[in-house]
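User: I'm new to structure prediction. If I give you an amino acid sequence, what do you actually give back? Let's try with this one:
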Amino acid sequence: MTRSVVIPLVSLVVLTTACSAEDVPQAHRGRMFDRTGLLAFYAGGGGLEGSVLEPGTYFTGVYDQVRTVECATTTEREGLTSLTKDGVQFGVDIYVRFSADCANDKVVEGILKAVAPSVPQEAPRTVTAKQLYATYVRPALGESIREAFSPHIANDVNEKREAILAHIKRRFIELMKPNEGQLAFVRIDELNLSNMDYPDELDHANSARAVQAVLKDKAIAERDRVTAETETAEMKRLLAKSEGAAEAARIDEIGAALKRNPEYLTFDLQQKMPDIYKTAGDKGNLIITAPAPSLLINPKK
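Assistant: Good question. You get back a string of structure tokens that encode the predicted 3D arrangement of the chain. For your 301 residues, that looks like this:
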């Protein structure tokens, strides 16, 4: 290839590569990574430099690159397991909502210095939320779960379930707090403990206990019903006895009074006769006249 051809080709390469640019995507922040090479006579190449970049497009020159941090809020579901004191393995399903604390420029600089960017094609030269989760969040979750389960035996877990879940959440928040003088790269927005997974054997045992508890409650309810009905029948018997005694006493008093005053029956009948005749006359076709009072009242001897 002649010199007249090589020089224009080199010039074309220089012109095209010298005008390159890279983006800082939405919900990302980044920094310029200074690189060098032949066309820069191997000058510079100091790595990360300059201020933190906001989302936008930036001129990179021939060799420089933009390294970014994913700042979007992300939710990860994690299923972790831990052993109890007696060696039984339990599982916990956890949802964590988190993000890189990109509001602080020092945090962005610290992340880019401490965590290597990912290499997949979908996120080249970017520290992703999944990397931050795997580096900082998952270890703290695992430690929290281990500390919550290890002091207990398997049979106590069911009874202390709520206390164990509360311990996991409290301990995780403590572990995610930075030490004095350090930066918190990850901000935890929410932690939800959705489910506790028991071993199959304990699941069967818990189901059997629940069935027995239902049967026991049913038997107790039946016993209480029979007891209540028995007590009600006894109370009815006592009530009937009391009412009978009261009625007998009333009859005794009436009988004694009539024995002392037998003429009262004749007098009472005489008082009722007008109404009897009136009713009979209204309902029937006969005209009934009242008898003379002297026929109804016998003189007392």
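You can read the tokens as a compact description of the fold. Here is one thing that stands out. Residues 200-260 form the longest helix (61 residues).
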